[in-house]
Amino acid sequence: MKKWTVILEIFLKEGIFDPQGKTVKDALHNLGFKEVEEVRIGKVLKIDILGENKEEIISKVKKMSEIFLANPVTEDFVIRVEE
Amino acid sequence: MKKWTVILEIFLKEGIFDPQGKTVKDALHNLGFKEVEEVRIGKVLKIDILGENKEEIISKVKKMSEIFLANPVTEDFVIRVEE
């Protein structure tokens, strides 16, 4: 089996207030980065995983996200396989 | 000026023990995902920012990361501009 590296990004759903992101945006403005319009903060997981092909890997990481890693009520996730 | 979305991923440097990642890996094994070899957990920021071109945007986000968002002693970061 081949080893794959998967990046899984988990953010609060659009429309759910992200106070941590707001705080960072305000701090960036205070530091002079006024061109920043919005900041959202999430978790990112780098997962090394064994598998036969890309489709199998994506399907497994999707399952992990749905049952354990992300909260489907409040969070969205994006899966990216690094080549 | 154009609006850009930048994804900034911040991880502990390779070689620094990541106890949160270890805990998640162990939990995934207990759930049956034995093919997971390693998990590293970090922060991800989605930044909406105004600017003229991609090079300018990357340079600004790099500066923010170095002076404020990441800890250069313990963390590495990756910047990706979404098209």
Task: Looking at this protein, list some descriptive labels.
homodimer; 83 residues; alpha+beta; Mth169, Chain: A; three-stranded antiparallel β-sheet; 2 helices
Structure report:
The structure is a homodimer of 83-residue chains. Chain A has 83 residues and is of the alpha+beta class. Chain A has a single domain, classed as Mth169, Chain: A, CATH 3.30.1280. Helix content of chain A is 34%, strand content 42%. Chain A has helices at residues 19-30, 54-69, and strands spanning 2-12, 36-51, 75-82. In chain A, strands 2-1-3 form a 3-stranded antiparallel beta sheet. The longest helix of chain A is centred in the C-terminal third of the chain and has 16 residues, at 54-69. β2 (36-51) of chain A pairs antiparallel with β2 of chain B. Chains A, B: Pathway: Purine metabolism; IMP biosynthesis via de novo pathway; 5-amino-1-(5-phospho-D-ribosyl)imidazole from N(2)-formyl-N(1)-(5-phospho-D-ribosyl)glycinamide: step 1/2.
Count of the separate structural domains of chain A: 1
Query: Quaternary state, please?
Result: homodimer
Strand pairing plus helix content of chain A: what structural class?
alpha+beta
What is the name of the CATH architecture of chain A?
A: 2-Layer Sandwich
Based on CA inertia axes, which overall geometry of chain A fits?
Answer: elongated
Largest interface chains and counts: A-B, 34 and 34 residues
| Uncertain runs of chain A | none
How much helix is in the residues of chain A?
Answer: 25-40%
